[in-house]
Amino acid sequence: MANDDVLKLTSDPNNWASQSGDYSLQRYSKLDQINTSNVKDLKVAWTFSTGVLRGHEGSPLVIGNTIYVHTPYPNIVYALNLDDENKIIWKYEPKQDPAVIPIMCCDTVNRGLAYADGKIFLYQADTSLVALDAKTGREAWKSVNGDVKRGETGTNAPIVIKDKVIVGISGAEFGVQGYVTAYNIADGSRAWRGYSVGPDDQILFDPEKTTSLGKPVGKDSSLKTWNGEQWKIGGGSTWGWFSYDPKIDLFYYGSGNPSTWNPVQRAGPDGKPIDQKWTMSIFARNPDTGVASWAYQLTPFDEWDYDGINESILVDDVDVKGKKHNVLVHFDRNGFAYTIDRQSGIPLVAEKFDPAVNWSTGVDLDPKSERYGRPTVVAKYSTFANGQDVNTTNVVPAALGTKDQQPAAYSPLTKLFYVPTNHVAMDYEPFKVEYTAGQPYVGATLSMYPPQGDKHLGNFIAWDASKGKIVWSNPEKFSVWSGALATAGGVAFYGTLEGYLKAVDQKTGKELYRFRTPSGIIGNVFTYAHKGKQFVGVYSGVGGWAGIGLAAGLTNPTDGLGAVGGYAGLSQYTALGGSLTVFSLP
Asked: How far apart are the first and last CA of the chain?
């Protein structure tokens, strides 16, 4: 089974063998050569230009003496020899139809590669999943996962579990019916596909055995929550991260927004809100069959584009109110951080991880309540209640969430999570939109800005998931769109949109080091060791949703789904780039 290979490689801290370090997505490294006392002495060890000028998300992989580098569209892959001055061993550049570029809503990003069993797995923008021979770069097989003509694209990092490689799909802004798909790593044949919305045989739910909040979901749990056949263009895309617990054999991921962004068009036959399950949900599925063990909807009848795609970080023996649980911790776009028992799917903690969040007063965690598990919506900020063609103002968070896909880290040293966040408000005006295959199906005009009384757009925080409380918070001028890293040296690393790599003390948040890289950072910090020396690296290359104005040359404030105006000042601090910067001690 290939996951034996993954477990072996990820257990060696000299490697960075998966996008978030291992199956748990803790983004924690046992390497401690670089620590709180000497991190101030970091120097640039080497750099590499990718040759691409769009947003660089994800990170390279390091397997032994080889580092595998990926790029945004056109999704070039480089293998570099760490033993020979980082010489290029091979380069793979797929041929793709450039028509895919304009249907990638939030930049032409790619969140990274996967490795197992001597193969590198690349998920291309055009939804081609490609297996490459890790030594030669030769294509072993290719499978097409979606249809670009319907607005389906590929941006997320694959995960390899047992004998399968699993990927999601992007495109809710084009009215796709979201899904995850498993392919056999031996030959690329499809093993199963599980949709986010639709009939039970498509979403792979067992009405009696699949649960939500501890109870069986029942027959047609999704269909009952949609108006007619709207589920067929209902969204629920799956472009985030996947985690896996080998002990209970479940993998976890989140689904995105319902289509369209205009909630008035998604109301039930009686004109009232209707849940639209299972968009905005966390799923626990069996990797062999795809059948769901449980699902939990975070934001029923979404009115703000609060996708639930963010990662689920797996941590054992977390004390919640005096009882130990093996949990997943999920920092949702909706502004709430959830601590959930990952066997049962029961939410244990749900608290705001930015005090400015105002669209809801809280999540009801009383099992006896009729509103169990649901957030309480503040009417003032309900874009549905306010109505179509009405501008709802000063909603926090903005559509890009209190955190988007930029992954958090966890440190067993402090038992705290280190979370890159957005501190952004928005105006949201829904309008009627007609569905046409392959055309944008958004139906809302947005503008973004700092919350009232503030000037900064981001924070880097430490979070106690057992209590649901912020321990410390460092404000940042712009959103922190970079994935964090925690190490056994007591350091937490992250990047900023201006282009700084920063290192802070895990206990206090005190800044210990900063270095300005060539472009804004939306990549994820990683670490590895080679010949006894620890290195820390990160991509720089501004872009992503927050940097879409720079990446795509947009200037209209409401373009980029509202982000262009909110981040207009970014152009005064950085410019386009595409490079890998790697640091070490002298």
From this structure: 41
pLDDT classification of 3: cutoffs 50, 70, 90: confident
Please say if 220 is a catalytic residue: no
For residue 117, give the nearest of 155, 158, 74 by alpha carbon: 158
**Residue pLDDT, tens place only, 274-316:** 999 999 999 999 999 999 999 999 999 999 999 999 999 999 9
**Which residue, among 69, 165, 77, has the nearest Cα to 117 in the 3D structure?**
165
Reading the block at residue 253, the tokens are: 């991921």
pLDDT-derived band at 2, boundaries 50, 70, 90: low
318's tokens? 């977390």
Instruction: For CA atoms 551, 148, 73, 116, give the dihedral sign.
Output: positive
Please tell me the distance from the alpha carbon of residue 350 to that of residue 308, in angstroms, as a whole number.
Answer: 14
Q: What is the DSSP letter of 451?
A: P
Q: Which of 22, 275, 305, 427 is catalytic?
A: 305
Whole-number Å distance between alpha carbons of 178 and 279: 9
- Could you tell me which residues are beta bridge partners of residue 485? 493
Who's near 439: CB < 8 A, 6+ residues apart?
151, 174
Contact between residue 47 and residue 519 where contact means Cβ atoms under 8 Å apart: no
Closest CA to 261 of 234, 232, 298, 228: 234
Strand partners, 182: 166, 192
What is the tally of helices (H) and strands (E) in the chain? 5, 40
- Euclidean distance between CA atoms 141 and 162, whole angstroms: 18
Structure tokens at 92: 């793979």
With a cut of 70, say whether residue 388 has pLDDT above it. Answer: yes
Q: Residue 420 and residue 401: Cα distance in Å, rounded? A: 11
Residue whose token pair is 């617990």: 245
- 427-434 average pLDDT score: 97
pLDDT digits (tens, 9 = 90+) for 15-60: 999 999 999 999 999 999 999 999 999 999 999 999 999 999 999 9
Rounded-to-integer distance, Cα 543 and Cα 576, Å: 8
- Given a contact cutoff of 8 angstroms between Cβ atoms, the answer to whether 471 and 12 are in contact is no
